[in-house]
């Protein structure tokens, strides 16, 4: 689909421009490709590609140099004084070629200068292209739908709890669907936990039941078969569309799967189609099956289970949709106050809804960082070009003397900047290519499958355009200012032997540029430091339990097989018994919802004897169901009272252990043991609110960090014993003696012994669960580290370049001072003293900028980024050290000069 | 032209080319031969420019050969030493031999 050169074609295209064309050039390209293939077989493709680029540069440079040398020779031939004149007969093309040749030649004469400028631009453009590509795939077009902006997501809100991305009840959905005028179509999906049992090894999958037209609305074009047929949706036909990943991994990409059968939760489904690669909406789904909406469903306003998508009618906007659905929601609130009080609706663009809560923060932090890099790169390059322009006064004066007009010189200099910028852009593309691969590979597939569009992260033609535009814009900006200044050359003055450019105003400019560069680099360094610390704290910091040495696995009990609570409690007990018997296992437990797993079951609770408040103002807390062994096994401290024991069975007094935070919130400063509260489950299953549901607090546990946005204390939580509640979705937690992953097969075996049709899924260590949860953070902190290092390097290069030029200009002055008896120390001090002012100014402004940027990051990544004093000390120290080193080097070399030789040169 | 002495690298490349038969000698094996038997590093850029120069001096001639998928469909360029190339080598050899005469001890010592 993408008309894009492959990584191999790029270097070849570049080489083609540098060497003679025709058969000779072709044979050279062929030779290189042949050797590249041989190298790829031995050292891998990346090494081979890098080698290829190195060869392109070395061969291209040699050929270009050869050509340049030949031209140089011909310069002396005859009638060459017209070199700089625009001859009347010259076509625009000829002039352009001439300018280009001139530019190449003059850049080649200063290889270090050209290299620094080109690589600076390459870093700036490469990092921006990388981030733009990621942003593009994740945020701008996560679905292959042509009219993405016409698709909206509809979510429920509960104003009292501050929830605005809630699920919607079937009853409300039915009302929206029948009454809407602004939406052409509304469709819904609901989460569908699936146990697959018809293949050799049973497996737990993520599926969704969807209403008619759901997949078509998202533009899904199956790679095999068809999508679900709308007309047949309400018949009893069980059809299912399977995901590409599932087809590939479990069905071996068989082309005859359409029409074959799968047993899902004990029912037989017919596969009718395979979804395209990369499509896994919502929530990394593997399966999509039709949902039957019957009359009962239409009146069900209790269970919140639908995610709604809508296709806006032509001419309608998100705002229209919001206004209309809000009206319907309000009338529902009036008509069904018992269920709908406090419930509203939130309509937002789908592209906004699909990106995870952390993604915008992640992307914006990266954007800020890359923008800073680009700014530093621009400052750097314009510094160098301005300084260079001054150096070239005499050369340009010579051009003028030979008859070149001002516009001609201006054009020559502009061409030069353009060549630099384009070379930078060309080099920036491999940088971006590497960057994108780095980002893509840094997130494990088990996490990235939940990020719609992640697999689509790639370079594409629009990014090329973007990079080229940035490059040309930069060229005009970089080139114009110094060019304008350089072209205003006073011939007589400039041509005088030994004349020096006056240094008054430019010293101040230079100071400002150095300060600006240091300030920008400082902001980046501080942010990098903060994000590294934040990520490390999230991964290795306080969790409230001990994740090390714990193996976890999810499973789901079949509702048909274990319809009774006692049956479920019994089978859980038997599984735990089998697992505990395994060698190397210290203890085994279960919980309905692992910490840091991203899942959550919320309950609205009400304390006994508390003031009467309306239902929507009751506190929202985490609701966990755990086995007796859970607290000991996870090493969650029990601070008061007791944990669950044998006496907490079904039929005895309903009990709960509450977390410290919940105890403090509900009964501040009071005794907690023996207090009672009751809960309404909001996970869509049997909301209950009755007299028997009062729960007695028997213990208080430590707090557990659940979500990196939640800060150090986690979320208020209460725990219920398995025999009294026994949900069907559970996670095993197993504390092991040695490496937890050694036990994976035995664990599967133990579960199969109890129930051969019970698949364990998502087997992972607790440490991996936490690290997967923070995958985005890890990407961000490694990117920020890279950006910080780039900024530091760029700033050092920039300061060095400017300082060495400044010192060079004052070389003879320093020589005179030395001859008159100044000490080296004094010279050093004077030179460093001059730059120390810009250094101090840069650091002070930089600290201000860094503080602002850090605040922004801290608000975007609440709970992760914490402003700490140390980061604001470490980064300046690092930066000042680099800047002082960059200033000291040229100053030292100036102080060491031999005054006699300098004076002779005068 | 033939009385002009060959450059060092030109000399090496011409000699190396003679080791190959017709339709055998293109840049890749040529360079490996020089590096392996000649024991000296040779950059590809240098080799290509020397080949181009030798062809311009008519000491070498080239024909386009077959292509293959690993070469991205690009043809090989086979080189062959021309009679005037051979003559240039002979002249060089004679010149060097004549000048080396009676220098045996000086040239053999050390390594």
Walk me through the structure.
The complex is a heterodimer of chains A (about 900) and B (about 110). Chain A has 30 helices and 22 strands. Chain A is an alpha+beta fold and about 900 residues long. Chain A folds into five domains: about 80 residues, no CATH class; about 200 residues, no CATH class; about 210 residues, no CATH class; about 180 residues, no CATH class; about 200 residues, no CATH class. In chain A, helix 5 runs antiparallel to helix 26. Chain B is of the alpha+beta class and about 110 residues long. A two-stranded antiparallel sheet of chain B has the order 1-2. The N and C termini of chain B lie far apart (about 35 Å). In chain B, helix 1 crosses helix 3. Chain B is elongated. The chains are: A alpha+beta (about 900), B alpha+beta (about 110). At the A-B interface, helix 2 and helix 3 of A face helix 3 and strand 2 of B.
Lay out the secondary structure.
The complex is a heterodimer of chains A (906) and B (111).
Chain A: H1 9-18, H2 22-43, H3 45-75, H4 92-109, H5 111-140, E1 151-158, E2 163-166, H6 170-179, E3 183-196, E4 203-210, H7 214-217, E5 224-225, E6 239-242, H8 244-250, E7 261-264, E8 267-274, E9 287-290, H9 295-298, E10 307-312, H10 318-335, H11 337-340, E11 343-349, H12 350-354, H13 359-391, H14 393-401, H15 406-442, H16 445-448, H17 461-487, H18 491-495, H19 504-540, E12 550-556, H20 565-581, E13 585-591, E14 602-607, E15 620-626, H21 630-634, E16 638-641, E17 655-659, H22 660-666, E18 676-681, E19 695-701, E20 717-721, H23 722-725, E21 729-736, H24 744-754, E22 761-765, H25 766-773, H26 775-809, H27 811-819, H28 824-860, H29 871-895, H30 899-905
Parallel strand pairs in A: 4-9, 6-8, 15-20, 17-19
Antiparallel strand pairs in A: 1-2, 1-10, 1-11, 3-4, 3-10, 5-8, 6-9, 7-8, 12-21, 12-22, 13-21, 14-15, 14-18, 16-19, 17-20, 18-19
Chain B: H1 8-18, H2 27-37, H3 44-56, E1 60-67, E2 75-81, H4 83-100, H5 104-108
Antiparallel strand pairs in B: 1-2
